Protein backbone atom coordinates (compact mmCIF):
# COMPACT_ATOMS: atom_id res chain seq x y z
CA UNK A 1 0.00 0.00 0.00
CA UNK A 2 1.22 3.49 -0.86
CA UNK A 3 2.70 5.30 2.14
CA UNK A 4 0.48 8.37 1.61
CA UNK A 5 -2.68 6.26 1.51
CA UNK A 6 -1.68 4.40 4.67
CA UNK A 7 -0.85 7.70 6.40
CA UNK A 8 -4.26 9.15 5.44
CA UNK A 9 -6.08 6.06 6.68
CA UNK A 10 -4.16 6.10 9.97
CA UNK A 11 -4.97 9.81 10.44
CA UNK A 12 -8.66 9.17 9.72
CA UNK A 13 -8.84 6.26 12.15
CA UNK A 14 -6.98 8.17 14.86
CA UNK A 15 -9.29 11.17 14.43
CA UNK A 16 -12.31 8.89 14.55
CA UNK A 17 -11.13 7.21 17.77
CA UNK A 18 -10.52 10.61 19.36
CA UNK A 19 -14.01 11.76 18.40
CA UNK A 20 -15.62 8.58 19.72
CA UNK A 21 -13.89 9.24 23.05
CA UNK A 22 -15.28 12.79 23.12
CA UNK A 23 -18.85 12.46 21.92
CA UNK A 24 -21.67 10.11 21.00
CA UNK A 25 -21.07 8.24 17.75
CA UNK A 26 -24.37 9.43 16.27
CA UNK A 27 -23.24 13.05 16.63
CA UNK A 28 -19.96 12.55 14.76
CA UNK A 29 -19.91 13.78 11.17
CA UNK A 30 -17.61 13.03 8.24
CA UNK A 31 -16.69 16.73 8.21
CA UNK A 32 -15.45 16.48 11.81
CA UNK A 33 -13.47 13.35 11.04
CA UNK A 34 -11.88 14.96 7.97
CA UNK A 35 -11.09 18.17 9.82
CA UNK A 36 -9.54 16.35 12.78
CA UNK A 37 -7.52 14.10 10.44
CA UNK A 38 -6.44 17.09 8.36
CA UNK A 39 -7.74 15.54 5.14
CA UNK A 40 -10.57 16.40 2.79
CA UNK A 41 -14.04 14.87 2.97
CA UNK A 42 -13.28 13.26 -0.38
CA UNK A 43 -10.27 11.49 1.12
CA UNK A 44 -12.43 10.05 3.88
CA UNK A 45 -15.02 8.91 1.31
CA UNK A 46 -12.31 7.41 -0.90
CA UNK A 47 -11.54 4.95 1.92
CA UNK A 48 -14.93 4.54 3.65
CA UNK A 49 -18.51 4.61 2.44
CA UNK A 50 -19.68 6.50 5.53
CA UNK A 51 -19.01 6.69 9.27
CA UNK A 52 -20.74 3.33 9.78
CA UNK A 53 -18.33 1.69 7.34
CA UNK A 54 -15.43 3.39 9.13
CA UNK A 55 -16.72 2.10 12.47
CA UNK A 56 -17.19 -1.41 11.08
CA UNK A 57 -13.69 -1.50 9.62
CA UNK A 58 -12.17 -0.16 12.85
CA UNK A 59 -13.98 -2.81 14.88
CA UNK A 60 -13.03 -5.56 12.43
CA UNK A 61 -9.36 -4.51 12.39
CA UNK A 62 -9.13 -4.27 16.16
CA UNK A 63 -10.91 -7.59 16.69
CA UNK A 64 -8.57 -9.38 14.29
CA UNK A 65 -5.60 -7.92 16.18
CA UNK A 66 -7.22 -8.89 19.47
CA UNK A 67 -7.76 -12.48 18.29
CA UNK A 68 -4.17 -12.63 17.05
CA UNK A 69 -2.98 -11.45 20.47
CA UNK A 70 -4.87 -14.19 22.31
CA UNK A 71 -3.64 -16.94 19.99
CA UNK A 72 0.15 -16.84 20.42
CA UNK A 73 2.33 -19.19 18.42
CA UNK A 74 -0.48 -20.24 16.08
CA UNK A 75 -2.67 -21.82 18.75
CA UNK A 76 -6.30 -22.34 17.79
CA UNK A 77 -8.30 -22.17 21.03
CA UNK A 78 -9.94 -19.23 22.79
CA UNK A 79 -7.55 -18.55 25.69
CA UNK A 80 -5.83 -21.95 25.41
CA UNK A 81 -3.41 -21.10 28.21
CA UNK A 82 -3.01 -18.61 31.02
CA UNK A 83 -0.22 -17.01 28.97
CA UNK A 84 -2.65 -16.46 26.06
CA UNK A 85 -5.11 -14.75 28.39
CA UNK A 86 -2.25 -12.60 29.69
CA UNK A 87 -1.20 -11.66 26.11
CA UNK A 88 -4.80 -10.66 25.42
CA UNK A 89 -5.10 -8.45 28.47
CA UNK A 90 -1.70 -6.91 27.81
CA UNK A 91 -2.79 -6.12 24.22
CA UNK A 92 -6.04 -4.58 25.50
CA UNK A 93 -4.10 -2.49 28.00
CA UNK A 94 -1.69 -1.26 25.31
CA UNK A 95 -4.60 -0.31 22.99
CA UNK A 96 -6.90 0.93 25.72
CA UNK A 97 -7.74 4.22 23.96
CA UNK A 98 -9.69 2.49 21.20
CA UNK A 99 -11.32 -0.17 23.37
CA UNK A 100 -12.27 2.30 26.10
CA UNK A 101 -13.80 4.68 23.58
CA UNK A 102 -15.72 1.92 21.81
CA UNK A 103 -17.02 0.33 25.02
CA UNK A 104 -17.89 3.62 26.73
CA UNK A 105 -19.64 5.23 23.77
CA UNK A 106 -23.40 4.69 24.01
CA UNK A 107 -23.67 5.04 20.23
CA UNK A 108 -21.47 2.01 19.57
CA UNK A 109 -23.38 -0.98 20.96
CA UNK A 110 -22.15 -3.02 17.99
CA UNK A 111 -18.71 -3.22 19.58
CA UNK A 112 -19.91 -4.59 22.91
CA UNK A 113 -22.31 -6.95 21.13
CA UNK A 114 -19.56 -8.36 18.90
CA UNK A 115 -17.18 -8.77 21.83
CA UNK A 116 -19.80 -10.64 23.84
CA UNK A 117 -20.75 -12.78 20.82
CA UNK A 118 -17.13 -13.87 20.38
CA UNK A 119 -16.82 -14.71 24.06
CA UNK A 120 -20.14 -16.57 24.08
CA UNK A 121 -19.10 -18.72 21.10
CA UNK A 122 -15.70 -19.46 22.61
CA UNK A 123 -17.02 -20.28 26.07
CA UNK A 124 -19.87 -22.36 24.64
CA UNK A 125 -17.38 -24.53 22.74
CA UNK A 126 -15.03 -25.14 25.63
CA UNK A 127 -17.34 -25.17 28.67
CA UNK A 128 -17.26 -28.52 30.47
CA UNK A 129 -20.78 -29.17 31.76
CA UNK A 130 -19.72 -31.99 34.05
CA UNK A 131 -18.56 -31.65 37.65
CA UNK A 132 -19.62 -28.41 39.33
CA UNK A 133 -21.46 -27.28 36.18
CA UNK A 134 -23.56 -30.43 35.92
CA UNK A 135 -26.76 -28.92 37.28
CA UNK A 136 -26.34 -25.55 35.53
CA UNK A 137 -28.04 -24.39 32.36
CA UNK A 138 -25.20 -24.02 29.85
CA UNK A 139 -26.76 -21.04 28.07
CA UNK A 140 -27.15 -19.07 31.29
CA UNK A 141 -23.64 -19.94 32.48
CA UNK A 142 -22.02 -19.02 29.15
CA UNK A 143 -23.97 -15.73 28.94
CA UNK A 144 -23.06 -14.84 32.53
CA UNK A 145 -19.37 -15.50 31.99
CA UNK A 146 -19.24 -13.61 28.67
CA UNK A 147 -20.89 -10.55 30.24
CA UNK A 148 -18.54 -10.80 33.24
CA UNK A 149 -15.48 -11.06 30.98
CA UNK A 150 -16.68 -8.06 28.95
CA UNK A 151 -17.05 -6.12 32.19
CA UNK A 152 -13.52 -7.01 33.26
CA UNK A 153 -12.19 -5.92 29.88
CA UNK A 154 -14.05 -2.64 30.26
CA UNK A 155 -12.62 -2.15 33.75
CA UNK A 156 -9.10 -2.70 32.41
CA UNK A 157 -9.28 -0.39 29.38
CA UNK A 158 -11.08 2.43 31.18
CA UNK A 159 -8.57 2.22 34.03
CA UNK A 160 -11.45 1.70 36.48
CA UNK A 161 -9.59 -1.09 38.25
CA UNK A 162 -6.41 -0.84 40.32
CA UNK A 163 -5.22 -4.18 38.94
CA UNK A 164 -2.70 -4.67 36.16
CA UNK A 165 -3.31 -6.76 33.06
CA UNK A 166 -1.15 -9.48 34.64
CA UNK A 167 -3.12 -9.51 37.89
CA UNK A 168 -6.48 -9.54 36.08
CA UNK A 169 -5.49 -12.30 33.69
CA UNK A 170 -4.23 -14.44 36.59
CA UNK A 171 -7.46 -14.01 38.54
CA UNK A 172 -9.63 -14.61 35.45
CA UNK A 173 -7.69 -17.76 34.58
CA UNK A 174 -8.31 -19.07 38.10
CA UNK A 175 -12.04 -18.35 37.67
CA UNK A 176 -12.04 -20.07 34.27
CA UNK A 177 -10.39 -23.15 35.78
CA UNK A 178 -12.84 -23.13 38.68
CA UNK A 179 -15.79 -23.00 36.27
CA UNK A 180 -14.35 -25.67 33.97
CA UNK A 181 -13.85 -23.23 31.10
CA UNK A 182 -10.25 -24.16 30.41
CA UNK A 183 -10.06 -25.94 27.06
CA UNK A 184 -9.81 -29.71 27.08
CA UNK A 185 -6.61 -31.30 25.79
CA UNK A 186 -7.65 -30.82 22.15
CA UNK A 187 -7.67 -27.10 21.25
CA UNK A 188 -10.87 -25.57 19.96
CA UNK A 189 -10.64 -23.34 16.93
CA UNK A 190 -12.02 -19.85 16.62
CA UNK A 191 -12.16 -17.73 13.56
CA UNK A 192 -11.97 -14.07 12.67
CA UNK A 193 -15.02 -14.77 10.47
CA UNK A 194 -17.02 -14.02 13.63
CA UNK A 195 -16.43 -10.35 12.92
TrEMBL record:
Q: Where is the signal peptide?
A: none
- The superkingdom of the source organism is Bacteria
Pfam families per the UniProt record, alphabetical: TetR_C_8, TetR_N
Q: Which SUPFAM superfamilies match?
A: Homeodomain-like
Q: Which residues bind DNA?
A: 29-48
- Domain named HTH tetR-type: which ranges? 6-66
Keywords attached to this entry: DNA-binding
The record, for PANTHER family, names: ACREF/ENVCD OPERON REPRESSOR-RELATED, TETR-FAMILY TRANSCRIPTIONAL REGULATOR
Q: Can you name this protein?
A: AcrR family transcriptional regulator
The organism of origin for this protein: Paenibacillus silagei
